[in-house]
Amino acid sequence: MPLNLKPNLSEPGKRYFRAFTPGDDFYEALIDTHRDLSDEQSAMVNAKLILLLSNHIGDIAVLREAMQIAREGV
Amino acid sequence: MLSTYQYPKYEYVAPPEQTGGPVKRYPVVVVGAGPVGLAAAIELAQSGVPVVVLDDDDTVSVGSRGVCYAKRALEVLDRIGVGDDCVAKGVSWNVGRTFFREEEVYNFNLLPQPDHKRPGMINLQQYYLEEYEIRRARELPNVDLRFRSKVVSVQPEGRGAALQVETPDGIYQIETDWLIVADGARSSVRHMLGLEIDGKIFMDRFLIADVVMKADFPAERWFWFDPPFHPGQSVLLHRQADNVFRIDFQLGWQADPEEEKKPEKVIPRIKAMLGDDREFELEWVSVYTFQCRRMQQFRHGRVLFVGDAAHQVSPFGARGANSGIQDTDNLCWKLKLVIDGKAPESLLDTYSDERVFAADENILNSTRSTDFITPKSKTSLTFRNAVLALASEHAFARALVNSGRLSVPAYLTESTLNTPDSTAFAGDMVPGAPMDDAPIRVDGVNDWLLDHVGQRFMALAYVADPAAVDPARMAIFKSLANAPVPVEVVLVSPRGGSAELPVFEDYAGRFAERFDARPGTLYLIRPDQHVAARWREFDADRLRAAVARATCNA
Ligand SMILES: Cc1cc2nc3c(=O)[nH]c(=O)nc-3n(C[C@H](O)[C@H](O)[C@H](O)COP(=O)(O)OP(=O)(O)OC[C@H]3O[C@@H](n4cnc5c(N)ncnc54)[C@H](O)[C@@H]3O)c2cc1C
């Protein structure tokens, strides 16, 4: 399966009435994860997060595609 | 003074109390003639409850405040008779565009579905809204609107409250069975009663400028993150009535508000944005900070808090006046039933519960927008800019761009007034949902569903053919109008035709589609146009039980 670039977030058991809600739920959780951390600590958290999620995704072809898009324009 | 608007002046008239008569007692007193207090007064008066409104000022809202009024608020304003005025004067819009630096990265349409009477939003200066509401209130003989009447003390007592009111003639006293507090964010009544309001202040400042100019910008909301003309900050542009454009510049917490308000500071900012050649006139400038907070409960015995007095949100999302107007939508029918002895006072606790639920949703959404727009840490800023960088190419990132989630009504799914579904329905019109609109034909005239429901309990019975409804069933339907809490039954049908009950012809099929209606389907609708219950088959006992539940009479 190629990298999914369409909105794809949801939480099991949750009913959404507004299209923006699942993305906002996620984003808030992401920012909260970094609350009260120094920049260095945050960088460490981000690195761990990428490793955890990469393992969960598993498909290295998908990961390569994501890595490439992430580098574009930086 | 503004060049495009002349503030009306409402004369003070000495009330009967001040000519030495005995202290009078009223069924309902509203403190505050802002957009929310006025909406409450009109709605109650229209339902037959006389109302006294006390306001310390003698004109409408001064300067640039509320701009955007959302579809749901417009539907409520329609019911109180000012929707057409607002829409005629205002600038209707549905599309919002978001720019990051120089590039458009995202746009949204507030009204993705066709066939709704009202647009997603209108932009209208708050003083117009208040002026129209005051005009409407003055048409109603049972609204007693008292200007230059400042409430200086409130003494709650078992069955109501006693107030002292200061006017140019001195202080007088009145009593009321019910007090609606709509005296705004700095609510003096809240202070007088020693009640708390909790939340947080955002450490940021915004400059707002109203600018008069001839410009053919489309009627859209434009939002910039980090634009070249105002680096590192955000800017928001709205077109209002009379060619007045409202521009919000984020300034940061360090900015000096007095300094920033000076025309020699403001004009270069605007020129940087609009270019040197565009002629404009600066009409209003102010600098504001904001907070998100709410009271624990909106009901305190016979004192009921609405609007900014009860809750405040950041302006991203235009959820202030919009949600206040929805407070009154929720409150007024309940208060009317309680005053008429048709429901217990506990029904008013559900006003607090439902509107606290909605306030939390508003605060959540506007806080999230604020956190996205004004990131609080370097990491947060990096994530924000990463989302914006991905957004022009990738749909998933566009969904994360948050330049304000604009005011939409809450689905009151947790309300104890709902009767849970017993069968499956598709779509979003669940118990507690604010009804979707739909085009209908009534007596041969094309019209809108939301203009024909509300202000009373109604049952919408979907039938294949209005002429073919069983007479015994018809008799039961009609008898519901004489119940202690009357329910008006209307037949909704894909075909017109006459019957002994009103018929809504669903000529475009939108009702069937949006409400997942089939022959036999019946919706019980609250007076505030929220779904209370629904079934696939009519059953009089279940309907009565649902009405009892929706009015705390169960
Ligand atoms: C910059 C800015 C932008 C905004 N944009 C939007 C927007 O786009 N959309 C939106 O929906 N909302 C917006 N808002 C919020 C909106 O202005 C408020 O939510 C709205 O005015 C609240 O209405 P209210 O009737 O509850 O209170 P108010 O409008 O504050 O009215 C309170 C009234 O009570 C009177 N009063 C106060 N104390 C007493 C007393 N003791 N006795 C008698 N009378 C008294 C006051 O004179 C006033 O008339 C914005 C606000 C700001 C500041």
UniProtKB/TrEMBL annotation, chain A:
Keywords: Monooxygenase, Oxidoreductase. This is Small subunit of monooxygenase. One of its GO terms (molecular function) is monooxygenase activity. It holds the Pfam family DUF2783.
Automatic annotation (TrEMBL), chain B:
Gene3D superfamilies: 3.30.70.2450, 3.40.30.120, FAD/NAD(P)-binding domain. The keyword Flavoprotein applies. Pfam families: FAD_binding_3 (PF01494). Keywords: FAD, Flavoprotein. It comes from the Bacteria. Residues 26-360 form the FAD-binding domain. Its cofactor is FAD. PANTHER family: BINDING MONOOXYGENASE, PUTATIVE (JCVI)-RELATED, TRK SYSTEM POTASSIUM UPTAKE PROTEIN. This is FAD-dependent oxidoreductase. It comes from Azonexus hydrophilus.
